[in-house]
Amino acid sequence: MIKIKDIHKSFADKMVLEGVSGEFKKGTCNLIIGASGTGKSVLLKCIVGLIPSDKGTIFYDLRNFSNADHEIKAQIRREIGMLFQGGALFDSKTVEQNVMFPLDILTKMPLGEKLDRVNFCLKRVGLENAAKKMPSEISGGMRKRVGIARAIVNNPAYLFCDEPNSGLDPQTSILIDELIQDITYEFNTTTIVVTHDMNSVMGIGDNIMFLYKGHKLWEGNKENITHSGIQELDDFVFANKVMSALRDKL
Ligand SMILES: Nc1ncnc2c1ncn2[C@@H]1O[C@H](COP(=O)(O)OP(=O)(O)OP(=O)(O)O)[C@@H](O)[C@H]1O
Ligand SMILES: [Mg+2]
Question: Which ligand is in closest contact with the Cα of 40?
Fold first, then answer.
């Protein structure tokens, strides 16, 4: 479980997060949604420690990440898998080398063991035949799957995905969503997915947090998201034409 309390972050005089709190349970897919520029990626980066928050506390299970010493922080980082917005694969490394990268920098595993683990993860995302290919030789959906394989290669307890569907067609997006959900349940990870894709929200949102201009305006699940009574959330949810047509039937 991950708990965040009163997270604040500003850049120069621009306040991006203004006191965000929440709880993300183990073995569930937690979605952070909201319009572009509302602070979703910044929140995710604060949670994983890629950027320091100005105020607030982050707990990884019972460990306080915010004031942890170097050793505990490093241990928690080893338990984190992350799929970055845009994929962030190394263009000059093969698929296999990309997936192996976290093991190279985080562990002292012998090469044979690393290869076994990489092959297991590539198989898990259906890419066992692409190990020797370069990122430029595979499709966008395959690149996302490489990113997912890399995110789970260190057997993480906590999995973070920033816009896993950006740039993908709706059908491939569903496959990627299902993969993230299956991995969450299979490996019992605490998963946080940042998205503005309503299909994902209705597909894999066990728990959903709606961010609006740096505040958490609503929290709930896919069953009650369509009748929150919050105008800003309705504007976000029903911006999609399909959802809009659905509203007319509600
Ligand atoms: N390193 C940074 N320095 C200055 N401002 C930043 C930095 N990172 C983010 N911001 C600003 O913080 C705000 C929130 O950005 P963020 O990337 O979290 O948005 P987002 O909700 O993830 O949007 P999108 O859906 O487009 O990815 C934006 O106004 C952005 O310009
Ligand atoms: Mg973002």
Answer: 1
Domains and CATH numbers, the chain: 2-79+160-249 (3.40.50.300), 93-155 (no CATH)
pLDDT for residue 197: 86
Neighbours of 222 (CB within 10 A): 17
Tell me the residue type at 153. Answer: V
By C-alpha distance, which of 96, 140, 142 is closest to 121? 96
CB 37 near ligand 1, within 6 Å: yes
Q: Is the CB of 165 under 6 A from ligand 1?
A: no
pLDDT in tens, 26-73: 999 999 999 999 999 999 999 999 999 999 999 999 899 999 999 999
**What mean pLDDT comes out for the span 144-170?**
91
If you take atom 31 of ligand 1, which residue's CA is the nearest one? 37
Q: Tokens standing for 131?
A: 């190990």
For ligand 1, whether the C-beta of 164 sits within 6 Å is no
